[in-house]
Amino acid sequence: MIRLHDLRHTHATLLLADGVPVDGVAERLGHARATVTLTVHRHVHPGPGREAADFFAAPLEG
Questions:
Q1: At CA 39, angle to CA 14 and CA 5, rounded to 5?
Q2: Taking every annotated instance into account, which residue ranges of this chain make up the domain Tyr recombinase (predicted)?
Q3: What is the structure's pLDDT at 47?
């Protein structure tokens, strides 16, 4: 059984995965702060670790 709350999480996850800024997603969800959205949906957002890895890999890839 899918609950309405599950659809809310799916909605936020799809928005973040598509590159919608966290602030925009937080506003749609009614979160007072974007940190709430990031805490709940951190599995979708690559964060600074991904950016650092990409930066490091770029020169190695030629």
A1: 55
A2: 2-44
A3: 66
Residues 6+ apart with CB under 8 A from 22: 16, 34, 37, 38, 45
Give tens-digit pLDDT for 35-54.
999 888 877 766 667 777 78
Which one-letter amino acid corresponds to residue 50?
R
Burial of 36 (0-12, 13-18, 19+ CB in 10 A): middle
Whole-prediction pTM: 0.65
Q: Are 15 and 25 in contact (CB under 8 A)?
A: yes
Q: Which amino acid is at 23?
A: D
